[in-house]
């Protein structure tokens, strides 16, 4: 389609878009010789020029082996969260359970839980994956992404962290994986303005014991041991200045804990194991 409509790409570039983004927008919207395609491309270009993230303008974005639908009801999945999935899969491999129970807390688009389900299935392994979010909008997106990828065995529950979960799961969860909001309200102002388009409830958390944005992570760490099976693991993404607080919280909760760095060398992922 790009070749057939080079003038549309040029038009978007002339209006100020980067060439790569202009090509992606034309590929997305200029489909099938639709007479309204040019109007759709121009409208999408205006959204992007207005500051909306490219991922929302395109309406989908890759995450590991998934092509996730994304819209302003959900956080745009980040590359560092792809690394979180590697840590989660390593914990499941260590546990070597035939049918592990996995809770994806704050599932958003479903990125983490769906990637785990998809990658285990590709290896002929199974898991009972439950995505949890407090936002009905996020859960609707996650359910649609599960259907899109044929991962209909993944279930979704509306809950405030563990608060609304069926008590019968206590002590039976093999893996709790979470990428909770962890940006402090004051920090947000200094970050990329494009973040203003993402749901604030997916990004910002209250401070905790003087640690900016740490309250949701702290609540998850404190509650996790009661839900984990013996030997089960909490794998939690946190802010790059929250590593010491995450380790201390995990040890206070009685977990055996280590903190892992991302590819850029920043403390990013807490791994806490129930003894
Ligand atoms: C940083 S986003 C992560 C989304 C997705 N897991 C990912 O990694 O792309 C945090 C998610 O936690 C959800 N959330 C915020 N507070 C919550 C709470 N109290 N209980 C459950 N989910 C919550 C938000 O709605 C949001 O979808």
What does this structure look like?
The chain is α/β, with parallel strands linked by helices. It folds into two domains: 6-50, no CATH class; 61-273, Rossmann fold. The chain is built from eleven helices and nine strands. Helix 1 crosses helix 2, helix 2 (19-29) packs antiparallel against helix 3 and helix 5 packs across helix 6. The radius of gyration is 20 Å and the shape is globular. The N and C termini lie far apart (56 Å). The mean pLDDT is 95. Bound molecules: S-adenosylmethionine. S-adenosylmethionine (SAM) binds at residues 75, 77, 81, 106-109, 111-112, 132-135, 138, 160-161, 179-181, 201-202, 216.
Summarize the structure.
This protein is of the alpha/beta class and 275 residues long. It is built from eleven helices and nine strands.
Q: What are the salient characteristics of this protein?
A:
275 residues; two-stranded antiparallel sheet; Rossmann fold; binds S-adenosylmethionine; 11 helices; 9 strands; seven-stranded mixed β-sheet; alpha/beta; 40% helix
